[in-house]
Automatic annotation (TrEMBL):
SUPFAM superfamilies, per database record: Oxidoreductase molybdopterin-binding domain
All residue ranges annotated as the Oxidoreductase molybdopterin-binding domain in the record: 37-183
Protein name according to UniProt: Oxidoreductase molybdopterin-binding domain-containing protein
Pfam families: Oxidored_molyb
Length: 203
């Protein structure tokens, strides 16, 4: 109504962008900073990354060893539960699938939990973790992650809302049964599929 009365044309929406934007989201060129708690200090001499739980081989990498792992790149969009979406992100890091293979995940495993500095956790099904676009990122758009975006390592799970892409990750635990993460215990959706608008557990 407003556009007709002012003699203006409705803005054109790029069909491709509309197709890549989940319902209820708006696009942003910026990368908003959202997290719980303070940004943790990073000490490369004490930092480590653990792989444990329902696996054949529990692993522990120090900072030098983790940086030396084979890397992969992923081009993916990011969707935050607070309703912004940032498209066309280029991530570089260690694939989740390669970590699972190195540890020898046992058949009983069905879920994973990411453990992060500050006691933060996030959970996803193993089937999601083993997708080829999930990785432990060290770089974003060619640059080393900044502290506010998870330096030195954050997990990236593009097909889920952004809180599953936990910052400052220090390990991954493989589980036979699901265990809710930090935000899930406060009422957020366990599955967090942005295309289904799975924001909260009671929706």
């Amino acid at each position: 109504m407003v556009f007709r009365s002012m003699g203006l044309k409705r803005p054109q929406v790029d069909p491709e962008l509309a197709e890549r934007t989940p319902p209820g989201q708006h696009l942003t060129r910026r990368w908003p900073v959202l997290h719980y708690g303070d940004i943790p200090a990073f000490d490369p001499t004490t930092w480590d990354f653990r792989v444990f739980g329902v696996v054949e081989r529990e692993l522990r990498y120090d900072w030098a060893a983790f940086q030396a792992l084979p890397r992969t790149t992923v081009h993916a969009d990011m969707h935050c539960v607070t309703r912004w979406s940032k498209l066309d992100n280029d991530w570089e890091g260690v694939s989740g699938r390669s970590v699972a293979e190195a540890a020898g995940v046992r058949p009983a495993a069905r879920f994973v939990v990411f453990h992060c500095d500050g006691g933060y956790t996030a959970n996803i099904p193993l089937a999601v973790f083993e997708d080829d676009d999930v990785l432990f990122a060290l770089k974003h758009d060619g640059a080393v992650l900044t502290p506010e975006h998870g330096y030195p390592v954050r997990v990236v799970v593009p097909k889920r809302y952004g809180w599953k892409s936990a910052k400052w990750v220090r390990g991954v635990e493989f589980l036979a049964e699901d265990r809710q993460g930090f935000w899930e215990r406060y009422g957020y959706s366990n599955s967090a599929d942005p295309w289904r608008e799975e924001r909260f557990a009671d929706e």
